[in-house]
Amino acid sequence: MKVTQDATCPADQLKIKIEGSLSSGQEDLPKVSLDGKNLLTLDLEYFQSVNSIGIVHFMRWIKQFAAIQIQIEKCPKFFVDQINMVGGLLPKTAKIQSFYVPYFCEEDESSKMVLYTLGREYQRAEGQIQLKHPKVVGSNNEAFELDVFDSKFFRFLDQYA
Question: What is the pLDDT of residue 51?
Fold first, then answer.
């Protein structure tokens, strides 16, 4: 597991990228100075996997940021599944800015991960989550279909959108 900080952020913000797998111990997730920070952006694009021990360590680690706003970008499907299953995995100050959704094509039995972004494929309006599923097609114009159950997979948005 690799955890890096983006040094190009404004002084009041912090951006952390998590790459690889989280399965061993808390030593993989370093203590981070919040010195004057009011926003944490967590980039999970290259986060590959986590097991139950890793989830416990992640929950302990992310608590250090509970007093500031947290934005999560490029959240992989496996982590969305964990958010849906593990209550309190993220602090109440966390908001999901983007996440990956699986699509499947029966014609050639291929799959794609499609990035859903706040304000484009989903938003909160009048207290309700509104989804706009994009039309996904392959290189030969074959249709892809959503490969999750709406009512189960998108449940996390009620709390974190």
Answer: 92
